Amino acid sequence: MHQRQRKILDMLQRGKLLIREAAVELGVTEMTLRRDLKLLEERKLILCVKGGAIPYPAKYEPESAASEMTDCKFAIANALYQRIMPAESIFISAGSTSLAFAKVIARCNRLPLTVITNSLPAASTLFRSCCKVILLGGELRSNSLDLVGPIAEKNLEEYHVDWLISGCDAALSDYGFYTSDISVSNLEKKSLRIASHAAIITDSSKFGRRALTRFATLDDIDLLVTDDGISPDDANNLTGSGLELIQIPAGT
Amino acid sequence: MHQRQRKILDMLQRGKLLIREAAVELGVTEMTLRRDLKLLEERKLILCVKGGAIPYPAKYEPESAASEMTDCKFAIANALYQRIMPAESIFISAGSTSLAFAKVIARCNRLPLTVITNSLPAASTLFRSCCKVILLGGELRSNSLDLVGPIAEKNLEEYHVDWLISGCDAALSDYGFYTSDISVSNLEKKSLRIASHAAIITDSSKFGRRALTRFATLDDIDLLVTDDGISPDDANNLTGSGLELIQIPAGT
DNA sequence: GGGGCGAATGTTAAAAAATAACATTTTCTT
DNA sequence: AAGAAAATGTTATTTTTTAACATTCGCCCC
């Protein structure tokens, strides 16, 4: 890496950098500095703001998460939030749907819940809120930013929660809920055991599909929140097995 | 809050917003939108970048950290990095000095170390790097963004590291190293036990002072990296007790 | 109901910043 | 040392931002 670019990063460590000032300090043209900044931005080392640059904000969200935050997901998360308010402690699993739920909690920021999670995005969403946040330990997976593995599972045993909140990758209305990741599945299974109640929030597109492993049967789940895109048959199957079904009208 | 501003925040959930596009979508002038964005930026809800805005990047650093990232700290961290390269696994404790060290590791990004830490800032600095990151579990303290407490300490027992890297709040050259936080101290003591070697990095201003609790004696520490601002007496005391002392010239 | 006040929004012109295209210098290779 | 390639500088153009002022809208009070 270039000597000058290294210096730019150094200057940024202590805050923001103004192009006009930094150009003279570095003894180069603004144009040259801009070119450096552009390169550094492409490498996600800095973020260009108007007139200058700041250190790249450590995003605690997988690349995919932002694009998956549809209005529908928030509507579903909101509906669950209404139901779950009286809870004192909840476990929020990793995944974009449960992250939406964490964001709803943070935005409302009304009740001092205790939130246990293995998701860094969720923890970072909530750490400024009035909730107490407990993070499971373990190996940090860099693409999903969650903590899984034996340590995470073992830590889970230390806790009991009123609610487990989870998403899923696939669901069959007569069989249960799937995830495509075996480590996640193991953790989900364990978390079901420490929770008094379990809720799954998912959009209806997940129904009628399978994924790698089933982590919960219908009996395991107390509450399912989804949109109104599932078939009447599916809805019957679900309610028939005793779980409560909440369907959000798609237009909400 | 204004209806429109709320909508702006919603639009941002899914990524960035372009002023030109969003203005038509919201049915207002660019000027009006700009004024909204300015207000939202003042409230640290968004960050304006050229031509648009992004969600406010959640800072995974205590407020104080940025201002404490002096050149001196980086020089010290760099010196330690040179020494520690052959290590395979290291524990990085919480604190602004060890965060500087994490940043050095991330910036160089050369060796695939295994890094265990109880510091979210450190974890977030390193998760994109070639290092494997392991996070201790426990309660997340919202001001320092670190994990402490019995769970964190218990997790620590699962690991062994080649190096412990820590800062300190105060130091006496004939007695040892202090921190002003009892939870941190407990964790530090435990981490000393799982490490083959221990290094402390600190600027010289910490010398000659005490803080709440001593977490390490001179014997516990193998390597001390600091600047050249400590007295000859202090230097003698330190080297006399068998630890290796590295002093960085202040001008570096 | 209308006058008037203040907030919100819109309009326009000027300033600042970013971009693009091209010129010049430096660096490296052979 | 020549030539090519990379880096930097220069200039002109476009885009974005700001500032200043005009207009509209909503609201309160008489």
Give a nutshell description of this structure.
Chain A is of the alpha/beta class. The first copy, chain A, has ten helices and 15 strands. In chain A, helix 2 crosses helix 3 and helix 6 (96-108) packs parallel to helix 7.
Helices and strands in order:
The structure is a homodimer of 252-residue chains.
Chain A: H1 3-13, E1 17-18, H2 19-26, H3 30-42, E2 46-49, E3 52-55, H4 63-68, H5 71-84, E4 89-92, H6 96-108, E5 114-117, H7 120-126, E6 132-135, E7 138-140, E8 147-148, H8 150-156, E9 161-166, E10 170-172, E11 176-179, H9 182-193, E12 195-201, E13 213-216, E14 223-227, H10 232-240, E15 244-248
Parallel strand pairs in A: 4-5, 4-9, 5-6, 9-12, 12-14, 14-15
Antiparallel strand pairs in A: 1-3, 2-3, 7-8, 10-11, 11-13
Chain A binds a DNA duplex (30 and 30 nucleotides) through residues 19-20, 28-32, 34-35, 50-51.
